[in-house]
Structures are given as structure tokens and as C-alpha cells.
Specification:
alpha+beta; 49% helix; Band_7; Tetrahydropterin Synthase, Chain A; Prohibitin; elongated; transmembrane helix; 4 domains
């Protein structure tokens, strides 16, 4: 085996060292992620720049901290007190994302585990504040949307200026003590039955009123008609009917004498 030239060995060593340095310095930031540089020989986190997706080369004595910057969610269960002091369990989910341009400031001030440093205390404080304004019945039934918005408003205030954006709050479940839940469900059922009964009464009353109006209308019409039918009018109507009947091709008319009120008598109809 031939010996390497004296000049070739240093070059080979330099190439190997360069490859090692590149492998240590190459960083790939994935989709939905951002990165900030931690400068070991400088002032720590560089807050001036956030690195986007793709391939990056950093100095080997520095470190790239990569964090998700797209919208994320965290779920939690909290034990809180209602307005009358009853313990309520609230299951909720919150959607959030860090401010991309201020990712360095966020990590520098709150650390890499900023979710637990910021979100957990803010969510718990907001939930206790908001839930404490309502009764168990309101929490269980009709106030869910309002509570979600109020918690979102509270969390947004608490995190103002903290470089973390809260997008939405969802209250997935409210667990009440079994006795309270049963009482509320019975009350809601009774209220529903009462409303249904009142609806039937109103419907029946309207139907009766309609029938009274129709009957009154018929009675008025008959009274008017009776008042207008004099003997003369009845006689004229009878004559008209007799004439029409006598003109019928299917009838053979024989008039003999006269009937009551001077009306003709027609016989022999076929």
C-alpha cells in the first residue's frame, strides 16, 4: 500500500472535520415549525430573527431551538366552584399559537416549555373567574356559548403582551354532582311538560274560538236570510222554479188547479 503524500493527509483530515462540522451545523425545520438561535458565545437567545421551514446552517457553537408555530390545542379538566359554592368539573380545550415574529422573545422570557408556564395558569384563573359567576343550572344548560366567550376574553387579557395568541376556547363538558344534575334534569323535564301543556291549552282555545266565530257567522247569515224572505219573494222563486221545470224536455207537465199560496201543481214528471 502506497503512503499518502504528506500534503494529502492534512487535506483529508480537514475534509473529515468539515463534514463533521456541517453535520453538526445543519438543521432542518419542518412544516409548521419555527426556529430561534441560542448563541452560546453571545447573549443566549437571539430575539431578532425567527427561522422558517427548510434547511439551515448554524455555527457549530450555536444551537437552533425548533418549536411549533402553527395553531395547537391543549385540553384540561379543572375543578372550579359555581356562584353558590358547589364544585363543578369543567373539561375544556383551548387553541393557541405563538407569535411567529416574537418566538425568540417568548422562549427567552418564558422558556421552551412556555405552554405550561403561560397557558395553564391563565386557563385555570379564567375558568375559576367565569364559572364562579353562574349557577350549576346555567352551566349545565343554556350558558355554554357565553361562558366560552367569557373565558376566551379573560385568557386573552391575562396573556396580553406575552407573545402567545389564544384563538378559541371550547367547553366540552360540565360535570355536576349527581344529586344536583338529577335535580336539574327533573326541573327541566317539568318545565318542558308545562310548556307543552300550555301550548295544548292555547291551541284548544284558538280552535274553540274559531268554531264560535264560524257558528256566529252562520247564525247571522240565516237571520239575515230569514228576514229578507217575504211571502212575495218566496212566491216569485216558486214560479221561477215551476217555469224551469216545465221547460225540461224530460218532463211531461200537467197543471190542474192551484196549490197553497196560489202556486201551480205539476203532475206526471218522468
Amino acid at each position: 500500500m502506497e503512503k499518502l503524500p504528506k500534503i494529502g493527509l492534512p487535506i483529508l483530515i480537514a475534509i473529515i472535520v468539515l463534514i463533521i462540522l456541517i453535520s453538526k451545523s445543519a438543521v432542518t425545520i419542518g412544516p409548521g415549525e419555527g426556529g430561534v438561535i441560542f448563541e452560546r458565545l453571545g447573549e443566549g437567545i437571539n430575539t431578532e430573527k425567527t427561522y422558517g421551514e427548510g434547511f439551515h446552517i448554524v455555527a457549530p457553537w450555536n444551537n437552533m431551538i425548533v418549536r411549533k408555530v402553527r395553531q395547537q390545542s391543549v385540553s384540561d379538566q379543572m375543578n372550579v366552584l359555581s356562584v353558590n359554592g358547589l364544585e363543578v368539573k369543567v373539561n375544556g380545550t383551548i387553541w393557541y399559537e405563538p407569535e411567529y415574529s416574537n418566538l425568540g422573545k417568548l422562549i427567552k422570557t418564558k422558556g421552551e416549555d412556555y405552554e405550561h408556564e403561560l397557558l395553564d395558569p391563565a386557563i385555570n384563573a379564567a375558568a375559576r373567574s367565569v364559572v364562579g359567576r353562574y349557577t350549576p343550572e346555567q352551566l349545565y344548560s343554556s350558558k355554554r356559548d357565553v361562558i366560552e366567550q367569557e373565558i376566551l376574553d379573560e385568557v386573552t387579557k391575562l396573556l396580553d403582551g406575552q407573545y402567545l395568541i389564544v384563538k378559541r376556547v371550547l367547553v366540552e363538558d360540565v360535570q355536576l354532582p349527581p344529586t344536583i344534575k338529577g335535580a336539574i334534569e327533573r326541573k327541566l323535564k317539568q318545565e318542558q311538560e308545562s310548556l307543552e301543556y300550555e301550548f295544548r291549552l292555547v291551541t284548544a282555545d284558538k280552535e274553540a274560538q274559531k268554531q264560535r266565530i264560524e257558528a256566529q257567522g252562520k247564525a247571522d247569515a240565516n237571520r239575515i236570510l230569514s228576514a229578507s224572505l217575504t211571502d212575495k219573494i218566496l212566491q216569485d222563486k216558486g214560479i221561477e222554479a215551476t217555469i224551469k221545470l216545465s221547460e225540461s224536455p224530460n218532463s211531461k207537465v200537467i197543471v190542474i188547479g192551484s196549490g197553497d199560496s196560489g202556486m201551480p201543481i205539476i203532475l206526471g214528471n218522468q
